[in-house]
């Protein structure tokens, strides 16, 4: 039962980008809607168990700050991911984005926390499967050559996607590394519903400040700010999928641990977003490039599963 649940967070994470693209709006408006939804969820959990929230404020001030900062990284990861999708497509962005996160988090956390204390054969095996994943990403990214006038947007797409991967990976690694340095504790020993409020607060405040600055700088009109635009409030629906995924992820981690929850969720997110992008959003590829993408997805799937089974390096 819980192994089935391990797939569900990724299903909802995979639904989020296609829904955001379908609803429309700028990345600022989309992230504002998502941030409002997450903030409301955080407040609900704070009200349900006020002592839990006070504990994070008073008893675990350092912990509150760590989780708050992770929310800042999450916001920028989400913002640049949606910016990349705006310039390209869901089926091009999501496989490379999520696999990129797996590559970075697995490499860094694996080398730091697992490979150095485990049998030496795990290092070459880990590197082999990470390289195989990279090859799968290349296959999913293949497509017709861009026209000259689109080269600038193509560069911006790769740049935004790269930034998204870096920020999302930092969001995942920051708490783990910080806690290891401070108390030699695992992040997953603290990751529970109490994290939802400080994390959502970090996401929401960063979103309001950042999107307001870039929107006002562009339009010089307060009425054009994301908080004043109806598209932002339509995108609260998009945020529902993130909230549901977060809640299920908490349940899965509590029962199966992050070692199983992380790879299963990542894989399902890749496949769901790709299928919805192709079927629902009608994002098309030529048959040969679609074939390469499917092969690439299979390679990514097998690489992640073997990496999980053989080396156990997931954070």
Calculate Rg over CA atoms: 19 Å
Instruction: Write down the overall mean pLDDT.
Output: 81
Listing every helix as H and every strand as E from the N terminus to the C terminus, the arrangement reads HHHHHHHHHHHHH
Q: What sort of overall outline do the alpha carbons produce when their principal axes are compared?
A: globular
Give the helix tally: 13
For the termini, the CA-CA separation is 22 Å
Largest sheet: none
Low-confidence stretches: none
Helix content: over 70%
Give the helix/strand class. Answer: mainly alpha
The share of residues in extended strands comes to: under 5%
Q: What is the gist of this entry?
A:
Helix content is 81%, strand content 0%. With 315 residues, the protein is an all-alpha fold.
Can you put this structure into words, describing what you see?
- There is one protein chain.
- With 315 residues, the chain is mainly alpha-helical.
- Helix content is 81%, strand content 0%.
- The chain has 13 helices and no strands.
- Helix 6 packs antiparallel against helix 7 (122-141) and helix 12 runs antiparallel to helix 13 (287-311).
How is the topology of this model organized?
Layout lengths: L1 H4 L2 H16 L3 H22 L1 H10 L1 H27 L2 H25 L7 H20 L9 H33 L12 H24 L10 H5 L1 H21 L1 H22 L7 H25 L4
Helix pairs in contact: 2-11, 2-12, 3-4, 3-5, 3-9, 3-11, 5-8, 5-9, 6-7, 6-8, 6-12, 7-13, 11-12, 12-13
Record keyword descriptors for this entry.
mainly alpha; 315 residues; 13 helices
């Amino acid at each position: 039962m819980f192994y089935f649940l391990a797939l569900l967070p990724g299903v909802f994470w995979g639904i989020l980008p296609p829904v955001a693209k379908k609803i429309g709006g700028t990345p600022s408006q989309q992230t504002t809607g998502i941030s409002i939804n997450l903030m409301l969820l955080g407040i609900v959990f704070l009200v349900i168990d006020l002592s839990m929230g006070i504990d994070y404020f008073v008893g675990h001030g350092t912990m509150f700050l760590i989780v708050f900062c992770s929310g800042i990284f999450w916001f920028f990861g989400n913002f640049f991911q949606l910016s990349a999708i705006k310039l390209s497509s869901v089926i091009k962005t999501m496989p490379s984005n999520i696999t990129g996160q797996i590559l970075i988090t697995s490499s860094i956390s694996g080398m730091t926390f697992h490979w150095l204390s485990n049998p030496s054969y795990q290092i070459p095996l880990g590197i082999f499967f990470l390289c195989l994943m990279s090859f799968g990403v290349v296959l999913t990214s293949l497509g017709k050559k861009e026209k000259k006038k689109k080269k600038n947007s193509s560069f911006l797409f790769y740049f935004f996607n790269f930034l998204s991967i870096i920020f999302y990976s930092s969001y995942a690694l920051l708490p783990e590394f910080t806690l290891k340095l401070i108390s030699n504790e695992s992040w997953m020993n603290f990751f529970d519903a109490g994290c939802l409020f400080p994390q959502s607060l970090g996401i929401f405040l960063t979103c309001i400040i950042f999107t307001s600055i870039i929107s006002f700088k562009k339009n010089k009109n307060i009425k054009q700010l994301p908080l004043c635009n109806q598209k932002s409030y339509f995108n609260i629906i998009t945020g529902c999928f993130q909230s549901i995924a977060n809640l299920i992820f908490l349940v899965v981690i509590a029962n199966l641990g992050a070692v199983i929850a992380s790879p299963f969720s990542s894989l399902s997110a890749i496949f769901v977003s790709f299928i919805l992008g192709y079927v629902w959003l009608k994002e098309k590829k030529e048959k040969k490039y679609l074939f390469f993408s499917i092969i690439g997805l299979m390679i990514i799937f097998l690489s992640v599963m073997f990496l999980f089974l053989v080396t156990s390096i997931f954070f």
